[in-house]
Amino acid sequence: MIYLDYQATTPLDPTVRDAMLPWLGGKPGNPHAANRAGREAAAAIEVARGYVAQALEAASGRVIFTSGATEAANWALRGALDLMAPRRTIVTVATEHNCVLETARWLERQGCDLRILTVDADGLIDEDQAVAAIDESVALVAVMAVNNEIGVMQPLTRISARAREVGALFFCDAVQGFGRMGLPLETTDMVAIAAHKVHGPAGIGALWLRDGLDLPPLLFGGGQQDGLRPGTLPTALCVGFGAAADQLNGWWEDDLANVDVLWARAIRAFGRDWTVNGSTRRRYRGNLNIRRYGVDANRLISEVRQVAFSAGSACASGTGRPSHVLKALGLSEAQARSSIRLGFGRFTTEAEIDQAAVLINAAAEAQLEWA
Predict the structure, then answer these.
(1) Kind of pairing, strands 89-93 and 205-209?
(2) φ, ψ for residue 297 (rounded to 5)?
(3) 144 and 195: one domain?
(4) Do 262 and 189 lie in a common domain?
(5) CA triplet 103, 140, 98: central angle to 5 degrees?
(6) Helices in the chain by DSSP H: which ranges?
(7) Do 152 and 240 share a structural domain?
(8) Which of 99, 172, 238, 315 is catalytic?
(9) Do both 343 and 280 map to the same domain?
(10) What pLDDT tens digit does each residue of the chain (371 aa) get?
(11) What b/e sequence results for 185-198 when a residue is b if at least 16 CB atoms lie within 10 Å of its CB, and e otherwise?
């Protein structure tokens, strides 16, 4: 199978798998136990934590391991509103991941004021509009780095600086941007990331907190991780995350150069019958979201079984609803339902891009012939 669903999850790097294996078998220690096995596990986790911080280019702050980015985002938003009382306003973007939007809407039902910024046809927010929306009543601003459906990169620097200027907290969902772009950590308070988007294992993520920021815990228990996020840490998953982050430290430039080549190859291979959704200028080019008039994307996915690709966010698959991200760009329901997302990266070859384009184009032509 040709795997082109990197935004949903990336293939596990063999180096990461090898780093995890000892902790899945011969090293059973609980990292919170005081015995030798426990201390060894704890030491391995702290090394992993350092690799993650290094990949974030974080000279300060704390990396708190979580079960994934969804937990990190829920914790960041809910904790920020508790911490910032009596401020009760949230500013976010219409194209955010549902872990942010649904948490923000839940907080709105609890009495918060929610301001959702619109985007243009390229999927980009208007910086002036965003700055105007962030005033002294705002508790939290939440803007993602790279969109998971269309790969668009939002202008974080000015917006995070505006949040800092008015005393609001700034949260960034950097799941798709981690290891692929620099983040303005000097004006950022919280960052959510996940291992399985950077060739690490699923089931482990992290929330980076700037120095001096102690969120109220989302969970309560044994006081692990400074009492901020209790629960026994999964040593193998933490080590895997660390190994994946360490790989980023060495592969960052090569990965970006590779996706640029693959992007150009894919644009040529799919041809002019397909239209790119979202900005092609401000974009992570390992994400190609395209549409073709009259094509049914879900049917295409079921027909082209030799290629793994997507119609949008894996988290929203099976809902039957068109993508909220594509609708926010102004696409009609028909256009959204004719859109596919191709994600590629470290282990993708140009030959795979060519072969996938042949298969998908043939299936699209067959659909249109019988329409």
Answers:
(1) unpaired
(2) -65, -45
(3) yes
(4) no
(5) 25
(6) 14-24, 36-56, 69-83, 98-109, 127-133, 156-165, 235-270, 297-303, 324-328, 333-337, 350-370
(7) yes
(8) 315
(9) yes
(10) 999 999 999 999 999 999 999 999 888 899 999 999 999 999 999 999 999 999 999 999 999 999 999 999 999 999 999 999 999 999 999 999 999 999 999 999 999 999 999 999 999 999 999 999 999 999 999 999 999 999 999 999 999 999 999 999 999 999 999 999 999 999 999 999 999 999 999 999 999 999 999 999 988 998 899 889 999 999 999 999 999 999 998 778 888 999 999 999 999 999 999 999 999 999 999 999 999 999 999 999 999 999 999 996 555 555 567 899 999 999 999 999 999 999 999 999 999 999 999 999 999 999 998 86
(11) bebbbbbbbbbbbb
Question: What distance in Å separates the CA atoms of residue 101 and residue 85, rounded to the nearest whole number?
Answer: 20
AA identity, residue 207 = L
Domain with residue 309: its CATH number is: 3.90.1150.10
Token pair 């950590």 in the structure block, residue: 185
247, 264, 291 — which closes off a domain?
247
CB 170 within 8 A of CB 187: yes
Neighbours of 25 (CB within 10 A): 9
Single-letter amino acid, residue 232: T
CB 314 within 8 A of CB 194: no
Sign of torsion over alpha carbons 332, 333, 337, 343: positive
Instruction: Tell me which residue range forms the domain holding 290.
Output: 2-9+251-370
Is the Cβ–Cβ distance between 239 and 23 less than 8 Å? yes
- Identify the domain boundary among 222, 247, 272: 247
**Does residue 99 carry a catalytic annotation?**
no
Give the tokens for residue 160: 């995070």
* Nearest C-alpha neighbor of 54 from the set 253, 245, 244: 245
User: How many domains does the chain fold into?
Assistant: 2
189 with 102, same domain?
A: yes
Question: Which of 309, 179, 294 shows the shortest CA–CA distance to 247?
Answer: 179
CA triple 156-67-105, angle to 5 deg: 55
